[in-house]
Amino acid sequence: MKKFGIVIAVCAILMLMGCATVIPIGTMYTEAKFPMFATSNGGTGSKVGESECTSMFALITTGDCSIETAKRNGGITKVYTVDGDVKNILGIYGTYKVVVRGE
Description:
Layout: H1 2-17, E1 29-38, E2 47-56, E3 60-64, H2 67-74, E4 79-89, E5 93-102
Antiparallel strand pairs: 1-4, 2-3, 2-5, 4-5
């Protein structure tokens, strides 16, 4: 019985420790917007371009969520800011979006 308690305690500690990631991720559900970077161009820009990837079961990911695709989709040549937008449910279904603002 004592070994079982130790195993449970170790598992609980490991689950609570988490992992450091670039993208904020919740274990069960994630819906977050976060900055990726800003340039020294200043301003926020009047144009917005987006690109998106989709992940299924944390096994298959499709799409193109590159900055270049977001720039092309928004007709942007001068980038001011790049932000990320992530939504994920239990690792079963997730969307990852890059939002570029500029001129």
